[in-house]
Design brief:
By secondary structure, the chain is mostly helical. It has 7 helices and no strands. Helix 3 packs antiparallel against helix 5 and helix 6 runs antiparallel to helix 7. The radius of gyration is 20 Å and the shape is globular. The two termini are 37 Å apart.
Length: 151
């Protein structure tokens, strides 16, 4: 039996599976948990931060991080990566899956260890990764506490 909706249901026309955009924007029929809403807004934050990093003028990069002009592209690449991660967080959170929210706790808890390894081996400077190394685990703790409170 095919799904029907709206005026098409009234006219007896059947509707096939949702199109790409409809499927992409679909949300569960139940309200999102606090963990899912938190993860969604974390994703929005990451998309905003990534966009700011990607579109920041070279002068901002040089002043804020003492980054040589030839490394501004690397900073923009990092901004693009953070923005894409934000997109995945926001879209994954919209599914309402608790497992997705908890997966973000695990990955964010690992960030300072991975970044610390890069700092200790001299591949990046502390000032380049300190923000993500502090904010990510704090956001992980927030997500974990919300999950635990709702159990």
């Amino acid at each position: 039996m095919s799904d029907t909706s709206g005026s098409q249901r009234d006219s007896g026309q059947s509707v096939g599976p949702p199109g790409f955009v409809e499927a992409l924007l679909a949300v569960p029929d139940v309200p999102l948990s606090r963990l899912a809403r938190y993860t969604f807004w974390n994703g929005v934050f990451y998309m905003g931060l990534g966009s700011a990093m990607f579109f920041a003028p070279a002068s901002v990069w040089s002043a804020a991080l003492a980054t040589p002009a030839d490394q501004v592209g690397t900073g923009r690449l990092l901004g693009m990566s953070v923005g894409v991660i934000g997109w995945f967080y926001a879209m994954g959170a919209r599914t309402g899956a608790t497992s997705f929210g908890l997966a973000t706790v695990v990955d964010r808890a690992l960030v300072p260890f991975l970044l610390g390894g890069l700092v200790l081996t001299g591949q990046v400077g502390v000032q380049q990764v300190a923000g993500l190394g502090i904010v990510d685990p704090l956001l992980a703790v927030g997500a974990f506490l919300l999950w635990r409170a709702d159990r």
